[in-house]
Amino acid sequence: MASSRTIILITISTLMLYFGLLLFMTPVSHQANLVNAESRPHHQLPPQQLYKAQQGPRIGIITVATPDKKQALRSALHYFIYTFCGGVTRILSHCFSLHNKKRYADSWHYVFLPVFTVHDDTLPPEFEKIASAMQYFKQLPSLEWLWLLDMDAYIMNKWLSIEDQILSRIPPLKYDTVSLILNRDASGINTGSCLIRNTPFSAWLLQTMWDLRYNSSVENYHVWHEQALMAHVLKSIESNRSDPRGDAILYVPQRAMNSYMVGDNESKYQVGDFLIHFAGVGHKLRALDDVLDTYKEPLKDLLP
Asked: Most buried residue, 11, 152, 156, 245, by CB count within 10 Å?
C-alpha cells in the first residue's frame, strides 16, 4: 500500500504537470510583452519602422518542440520543469534548447512561441513551422517578424538583438519590401534559422508550401522536408529575374544567424557569434556538450 508520502509526491507532481500544461499549451498572454519603441535597447531601424502603433510583441520566436504527437506531453512537461525548477541538467538538451530561447526572448521583450501541438501527425514535425507561422500571424496582428528556429539551434550571444544583428542588414530603401531573411550553406538554403515577415508575400509563401506538404516529388522532400519545399518555391521565383517577388528575399552571411559546428571561416561557429546550429550533426547532445565545455569561460557572459 502506498505511503502517505508517496501519495503527496504523486499529487504534487500531478498538479505541477497540470498547471505547467495550462501555462504553456494555451495562447500566451501578450500584455506583459507590450514594449514601446523608446524602451527597446539597441534599436537602430529607420525611425518610421520603430514600432507599430498597436499592442503586443513585434517579434516572435517559433520552435517546434514536438518530435511527434506521442511526445508532445513530455516536451511540455520538460519545458515546465526546466523553466520553473532551475535547470535540471544540461544533459536534457531538449529542455536546454527551449530554456535558451525563452530566456533570450524575455530579455529582449520578444515573445517565445514553442510549438507543442501537431496539426497533421502524418507529416514530419518540421512542417509544424509552416502551420504555426500562419496561425500566429493571424492570431497576433502585432507580430511583424517571426524567427523560425530549429530545436538544434542555440542562441549563443544574448547581447545581440534581432534588430541589430539581422534586421539592420536590410538596405534602408528595401526595408518595406523584404519579407524573408535567410542564408545559404554548401547545400543551398537552410530554414533552421530564418526570419519571415507578416506580409502578403509571406502569407502566399507559407500557404504555397503548406499546399505542397504531401508532394513527395519535390526534390529532396524526404531529406529536407519543409526546407525542400521552400527551396522549390524560391527557385521558381529566382529563376525568373523579372518576378518582383524576388525583391522580398534577402540572403545574409551564414554566421550572421546560422553558424555551424564545422565548416570554413564563413560558416563555422566562433565565440561571439549569434547562434550555433547543429545541422546534420549525428550526436547533437555530445556536440552541444563539447561546445559548452570548450568555450566554458567566454560563454559565461554570453549565453542567455
From this structure: 156
Beta bridge partners of 62: 113, 148
How far is the C-alpha of 107 from the C-alpha of 101, rounded, in Å? Answer: 10
pLDDT in tens, 132-145: 999 999 998 899 99
Q: What are phi and psi of 147, to 5 degrees?
A: -100, 115
Q: What 3-state class would DSSP assign to 15? A: helix
Angle, CA 127 vertex, CA 124 and CA 131 arms, to 5°: 140
214 with 113: CB under 8 angstroms?
no
- Residue at grid coordinates 504553456: 24
The C-alpha angle 267, 271, 273, rounded to 5 degrees, equals 55
Q: How far apart are CA 286 and CA 293, in angstroms?
A: 10
Report the alpha-carbon distance of residue 150 to residue 165 in Å, rounded.
18
Give the relative orientation of helices 93-107 and 284-294 as an angle to the nearest 10 degrees: 60
- 48-81 pLDDT per residue, tens: 333 433 456 799 999 988 654 454 455 555 555 5
Cβ neighbours for 218, distance < 8 A, ≥ 6 positions apart = 212, 228, 229, 232
**Strand 188-197's sheet: what is its strand order?**
111-115, 59-64, 145-149, 188-197, 180-185, 249-251
DSSP state of 198: S
146 strand-pairing partners: 60, 196
pTM exceeds 0.70 for this model: yes
- Which pLDDT does position 281 carry in this prediction? 86
**Distance (Å, whole) CA 37 – CA 157:** 22
Tell me 207's DSSP state.
H
And the C-alpha cell for 213?
Answer: 506538404
Contact between residue 136 and residue 129 where contact means Cβ atoms under 8 Å apart:
no
